[in-house]
Amino acid sequence: MADAVTSQTIFDGDKYVIMKFTNISDGTGESAVKKVDVSALNTNIKGDTCTSVAIEKIWWQCIGMKVRLFFDATSDAFIIELGENQSGHHDYSEFNGLINNAGSGKTGDIDFTTVGHSSGDTYTITLKMRKTY
Asked: Which of these, 73, 74, 71, 90, lies nearest to 82 by C-alpha position?
């Protein structure tokens, strides 16, 4: 069996994309699971393909487990860890967001890894991201 996960694109425009992710764990957890695939996002009005995103805002709640976010690359670049039994809203828009600083092999994608998960643990994470072409 596997965790029950969902990914929902709330808005995907020229400049921004907003996505919501949920997980109800059966104890399996997630390890480096691609949640934001920039190649699957809408192109801009000129037809350019999105190559990366910067995280401007995060709304989140984790019950019973932590979630680590990474920019995907040959050596993934750590973004943030969202704490166990906590919730919050982070706003990074004042300084243009959390920019993808991954090095070699950078894909532009964002991966999630759960930590300390057990059956019945949950997370809900909503990301507002600025698109780069």
From this structure: 90
How many other C-beta atoms lie within 10 A of the C-beta of residue 17?
21
Sort 108 into a burial class: Cβ within 10 Å, 0-12 / 13-18 / 19+: buried
Look up tokens 């967001």; give the residue.
97
The DSSP code sequence of 33-66 is EEEE-GGGSPP-TT-PPP-EEEEEEEEEEEESSE
Task: Express each pLDDT in 4-55 by its tens digit.
Answer: 999 999 999 999 999 999 999 999 999 999 999 999 999 999 999 999 999 9
Calpha distance 114→65 (Å, rounded): 7
Is pTM, for the whole model, over 0.85?
A: yes
Residue type, 7: S
Please give the Cα distance from 123 to 63 (Å, whole number).
6
Report, as an integer, the average pLDDT of 111-127.
Answer: 98
